Amino acid sequence: MASLSLGGLSVNRGGGGGSSSSCKKSLNARNAAVERRNLITVCRFSVKTLIDRSCFETIDDSSPEFNNFAAILEQILSHRLKGQVTWFGYESPRSFWDYIRVACRKVSQNCICSIENMENVSSSRAKGRAWIRVALMEKHLSEYISTALRDFKTTRRFYEDGAIVLGEEANMLAGMLLGLNAIDFSFCLKGEGLDGNFPAVIDYTPYLKFTQSSDSISSDEEELRTLGSSGSESSTPENIGPPFIMDENSWYNKCKRVKQKYQLTLEQKGYLEELLRLRENQLAESVSQNKLLLQRIEDSDLTHKLEKEQLEYIIVELQDQLKSFQSLDQLSAEVSLSQTSLGPAHSQDGDGKQDMLNLLSEGKEDTPSLLGLCGSLTSVASYKSLTSLKSSDYLASPTTEMTSPGLTPS
C-alpha cells in the first residue's frame, strides 16, 4: 500500500476505500461551505455597492451594480436546486421561479399572478428574473424571501442538503436584502435581456482587493515588476524608469478622482446646509402658528366658560320664575273656586285677592335682574331662545287666565 502526501493531505492507494470515501465527503462538505460563504459574502458586498450607487444615480437595467446583484441572487436561489423528474425518470433542470411561485403565494398582494400572465416573458428563468425586478420596485424582495424561507416544507422539497436556503446563511440573506427597500429602482419589463437559457455570471473583480502582508520585504510594485520582467532586458537598471512613470500617472489619476469626490461632497454639503436652513425656517414658522392657534383655543375656552356660567345663572332665574308662576296659577284657581262656591257675598274679598295676584304677576314680569341678564347674552340665538321661553304657556301671566270667560265668577 502506497501513500502520497500533498501539502499535509495524505491520499492512500489501495486497501483504503473507507478512508478515501470519508476524505471525499469531507472535501465535498468543505467545498459546499466555501461556496455558500462566497455567495453570501459577495451578496453583502453587492447590496452595499447598490446602496452607495443609489445616492448618486437611479438604478436601472443598465447599472452594472444591479446586473451583478441580480446574477448573485439568481446563483443563491439556484444553489443545489433539485431537478424536475420527468415521466421517464430523468431529471431535467428547473429554475428558482418554480420554487418562488409556490412558496410566495401567501404574501399579501403578491405579484406572482402578474408575472405568470406576462406575454413577453415565456421561459421560467425569464419569469424569475422579472420577479426580482418587480419585487425590488415594490420594495418587497426581503418579504418574499422571508416568507419563502419560513415555508420549510416547500423549501426542503425543492432543494438538496447543503443549499444556502436550508442553512444558517438564509437568515442573513433576508436581513441584508432589507436594506434595498430604501432604493428606488426603475426597470423595463419588455422581455429584452430577461430571456435566455444561459445562467448569469458573477463579476467578482469589483470586490477583490489585494492586501500586502506585513512580513513582505519589498513593495507590491517591485514584486510585480520583478515577476513580469524576469529574464528580459527590461530588468536592467536603465529600463526601470517607465514603471515609476506609470505609477506617478496612477497616483495623479487617483488624486484627480479624490478631488472630484471632494468637490461633489462640497456641493452636496452646501445643498444640505441650504436645505437645513429652509427646514429650520419652516419649523420656526410652524411653531409660531402653533402658538397662535393654542392662544386662540385658550381664548375660545375662556369665552365658552363665561357664556356657560351666564346661561346657567339665567336658567336658575327662569326656573325660580317658573315656580312662582305655577304657585300663582294654583292661587288663582283656588280664588276662582272660592268665588263660585261662596257666591256674591264674598265677591269683595275675591276682588281683593285678584288685585293682589295682579300686582304679584306684574312685579314678576318686570324683574330688573332678569332683564339685565337677558341683555348680557352675547349671541342672538340665546336671546331668541329666551324670548320664545318667556312667551310660552309656562310663562303666561296669571291675570290673563283669571280674566278668561271660563274663570269669571258667576
Explain this structure to me?
The protein has 410 residues and is mainly α. Among the domains are: 21-204, RUN domain (Methane Monooxygenase Hydroxylase, Chain G, domain 1); 316-407. The chain is built from 14 helices and four strands. The protein has a two-stranded antiparallel sheet. A two-stranded antiparallel sheet has the order 3-4. Helix 1 packs antiparallel against helix 2 (64-77), helix 3 (96-103) packs across helix 6 (141-150) and helix 6 (141-150) packs antiparallel against helix 8. The longest helix is centred in the last third of the chain and has 102 residues, at 241-342. The relative contact order is 0.06. The model is unreliable at 1-15, 230-246, 364-380 and 392-410 (pLDDT under 50). It holds the Pfam family RUN. Residues 219-242 are annotated as: Disordered.
Tally the helices. 14
The biggest sheet amounts to: 2 strands, antiparallel
**Number of beta-strand segments:** 4
- CATH architectural grouping of one domain: Up-down Bundle
The parts where pLDDT drops under 50 for at least 5 residues are: 1-15, 230-246, 364-380, 392-410
Task: Write a compact overview of the structure shown.
The protein is mainly alpha-helical and 410 residues long.
